[in-house]
Design brief:
The protein is α+β, with helices and mostly antiparallel strands. About 20% of the residues lie in helices and about 35% in strands. The structure holds 2-acetamido-2-deoxy-beta-D-glucopyranose (5 copies).
């Protein structure tokens, strides 16, 4: 049996496999949904307070199991875990019993959009899950709502900690007061660069940049479980997942330095020790290394292994950037079958 032993390969194999996403292209909206096209026309109508109040209203309505009081636009687009549904039929309003306030809240007062993430309870309080979502608002009405509930590691392909999420995200919500904030244009360029095939935007990574996937500071112990126990830092490698149709700058929060980007990432889920890891197809070295490990383990025949299986990562990636450096990278993925596309394209 032979496993990849270079430390860079170990990093690519796991967290970073899912980790290193990035972009190109322009946002696209459904041509049949007029509200989406009008989004940019609405200015000066949303403040941090009004968007915070609206997100609170959404979370409260989930706990009350009553979506019908929400200010939904007469024509809205909404998805939960990548598929479309009327809010009245969504799982979130059926199962969530505790939610809020958000641990992370990014607000774009120019475009009237917001992104929130938090740990929630469903059913009882025994186990927490991760809820995250994006909204767009026009004339105080919700025109777009994109929700995800990740309930365990298999939903996205490796890292998960609803328990660590509040502490990790709290640090991001209180950046140093003496920071230098980036311009809106800089955040847009960063978002653009994320899934780009090539980009001239140079990204400097802060030494203490926080890297998480679904709330967890990613530790990659290797497929044999005997590797590193140190959380991985952020990385901005030239070899990363690309998506020409990535949705750029879904939320730009100039005050806290957040920018939200979405990419669709084809890949495979591999047995990785007795868990599994999602590895994007663009990361061919990491996939090949994992295949070598998998084949050797299968030949040994000593443990049950997930067969390498095609999958697609629907990704909402949060970056935080100030002082001219990347300060945080959150790779938030929800997996579906192979060859999947997105409702939002
Ligand atoms: C939102 O913000 C971006 C970046 O500032 C801008 O290019 C875009 O026109 C705005 N409007 C929409 C509808 O995205
Ligand atoms: C902000 O203040 C801290 C001390 O509180 C200092 O170490 C740091 O260098 C300052 N950063 C900037 C960008 O001025
Ligand atoms: C496999 O699962 C067992 C518990 O079922 C755990 O103790 C062990 O550490 C796991 N091994 C690896 C390599 O993750
Ligand atoms: C981890 O375990 C594997 C399989 O037992 C072994 O081949 C490898 O050398 C070990 N790696 C480390 C860093 O100890
Ligand atoms: C569809 O998914 C399968 C399984 O992952 C893959 O082999 C195939 O190349 C994909 N086809 C396209 C057109 O992407």
């Amino acid at each position: 049996m032979h496993i990849p032993s270079s430390s860079s390969m170990m990093r690519l194999s796991l967290g970073l496999a899912v980790a290193v996403f990035a972009m190109g292209g322009t946002s696209r909206y459904l041509p049949t949904a007029p509200a989406l096209v009008e989004r940019g026309a609405s200015t000066g109508e949303c403040t941090r307070d009004s968007m915070t109040a609206l997100v609170t209203e959404i979370l409260d309505s989930m706990v009350a199991h009553n979506p019908y009081t929400l200010p939904m636009a007469t024509s809205y687009v909404a998805t939960e875990n990548s598929h479309a549904a009327a809010v009245g039929m969504m799982t979130s309003w059926r199962t969530i019993t505790k939610a809020g306030p958000p641990s992370l809240l990014a607000i774009d007062t120019t475009n009237c959009t917001a992104y929130f993430a938090l740990d929630i309870s469903e059913g009882n309080d025994a186990v927490q899950n991760v809820l995250r979502g994006r909204i767009a608002v026009v004339d105080q009405m919700i025109t777009e709502m994109e929700l995800f509930i990740n309930r365990n590691r298999g939903d996205h392909g490796f890292s998960f900690s609803a328990e660590e999420l509040p502490t990790n995200y709290a640090a991001l919500m209180s950046p140093p007061a003496n920071r230098t904030n980036p311009s809106r244009e800089t955040l847009w360029e960063l978002s653009q660069a994320l899934f780009a095939v090539s980009s001239s935007f140079e990204v400097d990574v802060a030494d203490d940049c926080q890297f998480t996937e679904l709330g967890w500071r990613v530790i990659d112990p290797g497929p044999d479980g005997n590797g590193s126990t140190t959380p991985l830092g952020c990385n901005w490698p030239s070899s990363h997942p690309t998506d020409e149709n990535a949705r750029v700058a879904l939320v730009i929060d100039e005050e806290l330095g957040f920018v939200l980007t979405s990419g669709i990432v084809p890949g495979k889920v591999y047995g990785y020790g007795n868990v599994s890891a999602f590895i994007p197809n663009t990361m061919t070295d990491a996939q090949e290394a994992q295949q070598v490990w998998w084949t050797a383990k299968e030949a040994e025949g000593t443990m049950p292994l997930l067969y390498p299986t095609g999958s697609t990562g629907d990704t909402l990636e949060v970056l935080q950037y100030y002082n001219g450096e990347l300060q945080a990278m959150q790779i938030n993925v929800y997996l579906s079958g192979p060859n999947m596309t997105s409702v939002w394209l």
